[in-house]
Write a structure and sequence with these properties.
The chain is mainly α. The protein has 8 helices and no strands. Keywords: Membrane, Transmembrane, Transmembrane helix.
Length: 206
Amino acid sequence: MRRFLASVWEDKNILIFATFVFLFTALAGFAGAETLGEALMNSPMWEEFEKTLEEIQENPTFANAFITIFINNVTASLLMVVFGLFFGVFPLMALVTNGMLLGVVLGIASGESGANPFVLFVTTILPHGTLELPAILIAATFGIRLGMTVSRSIVGLFSSTARTRSVEDWKGIRRRALPILLGILVLLFFAALIEAGLITLLSDLA
């Protein structure tokens, strides 16, 4: 855990930036829930979101909910890391779309139910989001770092200073990759446990 936290802390500035992007787009999504909701509901991300819900609702057992949630979250996080190699664009866009999706869902849910959006967030998102959201932000941060290093490597073809810096960056990435990826998996594992438990409990009470 200490290696994981130390590895994450080395990119604290990118992590702060990623958190800001996520929160800003979540607030934008909430503020424009009615306008953005229709556009998002026609997007592939919303289709994937609905597909996941349907898979869980068809078989709302703890094991099925846990496996579905864990696999989806791990896949999304790994894609942010791997596709971050393409100049960090994909993880940045993933942060924007995920933040906006969260804001829109909260906006629509609070509008239809009349519930306070903060209460909805605390009761429905925060229990598992306490672990899941940091994992997503860390995955995006590492993906952006990969993209920045690739960009610096390309500049390094024409600049010895950038080349030296990129070599050091790649050494740091290799050193930190394993603890960061393992840490993300652990966070998502326990987040999926919590979310699957809540889904099972609510299903039993219904």
